[in-house]
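Researcher: Structure for this, please.
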Amino acid sequence: MKSEYMKHYFTIIYEQREEFANVLINYKENEWERPQDGKWSFGETYYHLYLMIKLFRQLNKTYLSFSKPIATLRSSKSYNIKSDDIFTEYKEKSNKPMKAPFVLVPPKDIKEKISFKWLVNELDIETRFLEKMLSNISDNVAGHIRYPDPIAHYPNLIQCIHILGIHEKQHFLLCKKYYDLQ
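Model: Predicted structure, token format:
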């Protein structure tokens, strides 16, 4: 991967997943069983994360084709490499967690359609597809590919990968809390 920053953030994502998988090894119940009313199960959480990565990858199939040339023109200018934790920021500001957009909410009958093992594998496959898609973009260009997301403060591509990692970590921490796992 040309971008050292994106490579670093992808590594963090994979490490977080591995760490959480080790926590899940000791969980012997149904991965689709909700810990509390209104709180997602492990399966629903993973499906949400899968949809997030897949949607971001699909968006970039088109978006990169016109944003890369513009970013290349600006590549000599400075750019940010980290993003704020927009999820904690939102919760502190509004006193409630950020709601997922409807396109990222797992369908009610998802547990009848797929297995948890398949889902974990597909999440990694989608992430690798995204990583491969972005592999030829340098830091200088990635730092200037901006996304029209006001909630995330109009992040660049590097920051978006960082946000994906922050997002997953938030969900893993919530799962640990709701399921009372250590």
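Researcher: Any notable elements?
Model: The chain has a mean pLDDT of 95. The first helix runs from residue 4 to 24.
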